[in-house]
Amino acid sequence: MTARHRLQRHRGRSQALAACLLILVLFATACGSTPAPTQVPPQVVASTEVAPAVQEGTSEEAAGFPPPESAKIDWKQFAGTTINALLVTHPYTDAFKAQVLEFEALTGMTVNVTALPYMEAADRIMTDVSSGQGQFDVIFSAYPWDWQFGQFYASLDDYIADPTLTDPEWYDFNDFMPLIIESSRWDRTAGHAIGTGTLVSMPVMFETYILAYRQDLFDKYGVSVPNTWDEFFGAAQALTRTDEGQQLYGYIGRGDYGLGPLMTTLILMYRANGLSDLTEDLVCAIDDPKGVEITEKYLKMVKEASPQGWASVSWDDAMHRFAAGGYAMIHDIDFAAATYENPETSQVAGKVAYAIPPEGPAGRFTSTWIWGLALNAHSKNPKPAWLLIQWATSKKVLLEATLEHNNYNPTRTSVWNDPAVVAVASDWGGGTYRSVVDETFSNYTRLLWTPSSQVTHVADIWTDYLHKAYAGEMTTEAALQTACDEIDSLLIREGIQKP
Amino acid sequence: MPSSVSGRFRLRLGARSRRTVSRLLVFGPSATILAFLAFPILLALWYSLTNYKLTNVAGPQLIGLDNYLYILKDPQTLDRLVTTLKFVLLSLGIELPGGFAVALLLNRESRGIRALRTVVLMPMMVPFIVAALVWRTMMAPVEGVLNYGLSLVGLPPSAWLGSPTTALPSVVLIDVWTQIPFVSLVLLAGLQGLPREPYEAARIDGASEWQLFRYLTLPLMTPFLSLISIFRAIETFKVFDIIFATTKGGPGKSTTTLNIAAYREGFTYGSMGSALSYVFLLALLIVLVVGVLTMLWRRSSRLTSE
Q: In chain A, what residues touch B247 (CB-CB under 8 Å)?
């Protein structure tokens, strides 16, 4: 064998060895690169005393609400347990993260909080609940997300009725606003109304959608506050002009895909004209000729009285832009007032006023979004998790979340009517905020969607086609009709609509 | 029979057993990786033949090719395919010539150029998601710095990610920005490996720079161009993170590629069986396209090595 031949064989062998090593290294790094979970390992809190079942209130009482220590249950019965909570990035979540340390001290439990943005949270909830692994015990739930996820949440009535877990007098279940509790109950049969069925979440916060407008601009240009949707479109046009050299837009609002743009404006307009998203037989109804007319007016406003790029405006984009100035009206979440009225976050503090939603021929309607805490049915620690939910939704804790962490609007009548809360809310908008929210929530807020597990998907399709009409790719009529075709075929596929 | 490796490591083996040992050493890790890949792929394939839904507690039931047939009959599928192809062609159409131009520029020897190499490689060091989020902020229609820049030169603002007509080009722009460094790096490696003699000979014969490029550089670089096309084609066909971090498939589905559609079907709506069918159809498409490109690459490699 020649030396060259030997060299080639040698090279061949070491090449093979090198290749193996490379594969092994790549394999190892691929495995090793999975990030370790960032959860803090559970710590067992050393408790040297057995907590008595009843403790007289020793901590200061805020506004007369009894503190958790006064509840006739043993808070420390699950000391040492670790539970995991999944929340959505939201002002309430900031409150929750701050307050949960008190809960840990009270109970000797450890709570790991994960907060994700809205869409990512929805996907994460989907994967967790469907896997049945119960990775998260407490989940931030919402009307109407619960229509899809509710089947995976535990029924809370049982926990509320259990005397070892809940002190009914201290917890005072009837203190929660009835419409809100109603929204949490559904028997999960498509087409059946909300209000009866299992209770799957304890609400912490509700929002309703009202009109926030720049009083100063309306006064300056002599435009009257709109009372009907047609006046609304007119006011938006009238206030789109140059104002002291700057471009002023009459309207700013959400446009990104999903429930957002619809539940703050469009479905309100539909209902105010006697239309709905689905018929009683759960057939798509958004392409009704009157609906097409309304949608055309809406899109015209969005194109002419609002800057371009509407289709990517999210709820916080809209809120922050209104607060930065340059827009005359926004019809969106009521509690954005906390941002608008704060000189640190807003250029328009003191210039904003609030009004009830505009009406149409069929009445005045607005929608709501309710966030709450739900218990994962597959949780391995349901009872400790219930303690957390009970504690977080109790009077004193909810009041603190509202006063100290801006959790508006609280879902308990006693908290909403608490003098300190009334004082803050009455300050906003020259006194208009609180009275408007009170009036709206008592009279005009309704659960406007037809209940079904596919409500999010339906909204996605609807807004997708709105975007196409907005871009001029399709006429409004064609867009809504095609949307209906797609929605109907979806509902049939899902067994919700009869073919 | 000669045996043993030089140095301290002495293996007394016959040639055949050495071959066997070599093969086993390679086989071991490859088999493990294959098992880790094969199992999920086969499971996914099985699920794609069922009506597996995350929210359905009843569990998946076999429905055969129904998912695939539904997708092939669905008018949206063509839209999504067209969107995917638009993304691929726009991205490749800019990245390949652009990356090539950058590589040609970097191939010159000078101190300034060497410094430029570091700068050009910087976008590669930024994670995709971070790049996408920062670009999204820059592309904000009213407050974004890009529209501000346009206004300074007297151009009207663009809706960037906010309108169905401009969203896809905007996402392509982000992809191009993150990927041109990689493309230029691979092509630069190719350029630096080119033989000098043909160039010297051509110059002596009086060839212009353009002729050198067209008749020497371009043909000699074809294997590298095909190779980088294969890499980029695979990546752009299955693009996900850039779109997900910016538009999530909107507005109006204008950036919904097949992969994004699969994600939404599976994770947002819970229809895993359907989502996996999308994935397999996409995979089939990629295999076909890459197959064609690979044939071109092999053919061009053979031609240039002659």
A: 312
- List the beta strands (DSSP E) in A321-431: 327-333, 352-355, 359-360, 363-364, 368-375
Letter for the amino acid at A298?
Y
- Report the amino acid identity of residue A428: W
Assign 3-class secondary structure to A333-355.
Answer: EHHHHHHHCCCCCCCCCCCEEEE
Token readout for A98 is 């701050």
Q: At what angle do helices A419-427 and A395-405 cross, to 10 degrees?
A: 30
Residue A131 pLDDT class (50, 70, 90 cuts): confident
Please list the residues that pair with A243 across neighbouring strands: A246
| Best CA proximity match to A155, nearest among A379, A325, A362, A329 | A379
Is the CB of A395 inside 8 Å of chain B's CB atoms?
A: no
Non-local (6+) Cβ contacts of A97 within 8 A are A113, A115
Instruction: Give me the residues of A, 135-154, that contact B with CB < 8 A.
Output: 148-149, 151-152
Model pLDDT for residues A219-265, shown as the tens digit of each residue: 999 999 999 999 999 999 999 999 888 899 999 999 988 898 999 99
Amino acid in position B66:
D
CB of A257 closer than 8 Å to CB of A460: yes
Rounded Cα distance between B149 and B183, Å, is 27
Measure the CA–CA gap between B284 and B258, rounded to whole angstroms: 12
Measured in whole angstroms, the distance separating CA A208 from the mean position of its chain's CA atoms is 11
Tell me the pairing of strands A185-186 and A198-199: antiparallel
Question: Is residue A258 within 8 Å of A369, Cβ to Cβ?
Answer: no
Instruction: Return the closest-CA partner of residue A83 out of A117, A42, A49.
Output: A42
- Dihedrals phi, psi of A404, to nearest 5 degrees: -95, -25
Omega before B251 within 30 of 0, i.e. cis: yes
Distance of CA A193 to the CA centre of its chain: 21
Calculate ∠ Cα A463-A466-A468, nearest 5°. 115
What is the predicted pLDDT for the residue at A5? 60
pLDDT-based confidence at residue A217 (cuts at 50, 70, 90)? very high
Percent residues over pLDDT 90 in chain B: 37
Residues B252 and A471 sit within 8 Å (Cβ to Cβ): yes
Asked if ipTM goes beyond 0.95, one says no
Are the C-beta atoms of residues A210 and A440 closer than 8 Å to each other?
A: yes
Which residue has tokens 């607060």?
A: A323
Start-end of H helices in A172-326? 178-183, 215-220, 229-238, 259-261, 267-272, 289-304, 315-324
Window 118-177 of B: residues touching A by CB (8 A cutoff) are 140-143, 157, 159-165, 167
